[in-house]
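Course assignment 3, question 2. Fill in each field.
Student: A.L.
Task: Predict the tertiary structure for the chain below.
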Amino acid sequence: MYVSEIPVVLIRRRGLVVKKSVIERGGSPVGEYIYVKRGLFEAEAEYDLEDGVLYYLQVCWLGTCAVWYDGEPDRPVPPHLARRALAYFGELAKFSHAAVAAMRVLTSSLGHSSPLSTSDLTHRQPQ
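Answer field:
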C-alpha cells in the first residue's frame, strides 16, 4: 500500500512554526505527525492512530535533543525543557492526538526527573 503524508495545518507567526500532517495508507488515516519550533526550541511527535501508540518524540533546545524510545528519553531531560515542551504540546493537544500522547510521555518524564518526591518528604525523620 502507498503511504502519504497530507499537510493539514501550517502556522507561521512571530517566530512560531507549527506543522501538522496526517499519514494516510490506502486513503485512510493511520497516523499523525506534529512539529513545533519557536526560537531555539524544537519538538516533534509521530502517533499511530490505529494502535494508539506514540512512535516518536523528540524535544530539542540549543541543538541538543532528547529522543524517547518506549516511553523513556535517551538522555536526562532538564525539567525546564520538559515543562516548555508540555506548554507547547498542551496548546496543540486541542487539535492533535500526537500532542496529547506526547504530553503523557513528558509528564511521566517530569515525574521521574525530580530529585525529591513528596514521598521522600513524608518519610524523613525530624532532626
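Instructor remarks: The longest strand covers residues 3-13. Residues 113-127 have pLDDT under 50 and may be disordered.
Grade: pending
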